[in-house]
Amino acid sequence: MSGESDLDVMLAGLDVHMDEEPVVYALVPRVVDEVGIRAVVVEDEGITVVLGREDADEIGLAYEFVGAWLTLTVHSALDSVGLTATFSHALADAQIPCNVLAGTHHDHVVVPWEARHDAVAVIRALSLRSERE
User: Fold this and answer.
1) pLDDT: is 110 or 22 the higher one?
2) 108 and 100 in contact (C-beta within 8 Å)?
3) Which of 80, 113, 120, 121 places its Cα 20 to 30 Å from the Cα of 68?
């Protein structure tokens, strides 16, 4: 099933879901059981996992950043152009840092936990603005 590629259509249908539990980025020395892992990034320096804070605490992983996992509910195509740039630019304009991860069906954004509600408002405003245009 192919995702949407038209930026205007994606923005018009854009909404965001915010998980209620905070997530953290933690560097693990070895592959950890898939307890609560949302994303894995393998780098030369080690394996980074994004998982729930409680799960990280439970297995004793150290972390510095606590974030909120936001899922953009529009099904965007992996080869679509402009969606990531549009919402990341809007978040940057609002002084909200973001880390973007793309899944097969959705884009996911991790923002600082304390900025989570503002980030949701910024992203939702993109859809409202697109509907008016």
Assistant:
1) 110
2) yes
3) 80
96 neighbors 116 (Cβ within 8 angstroms): no
Alpha-carbon span 132 to 64, nearest angstrom? 40
Which residue from 97, 125, 95 is spatially nearest to 111, judged by alpha carbons? 97
As a whole number of angstroms, the distance between CA 90 and CA 126 comes to: 8
- The Cα–Cα gap between 114 and 34 comes to 26
**Is this prediction's pTM over 0.85?**
no
The tokens describing 85, both together, are 């740039």
Q: What's the per-residue H, E or C state across 9-50?
A: HHHHCCCEEECCCCEEEEEECCCCCCCCEEEEEEECCEEEEE
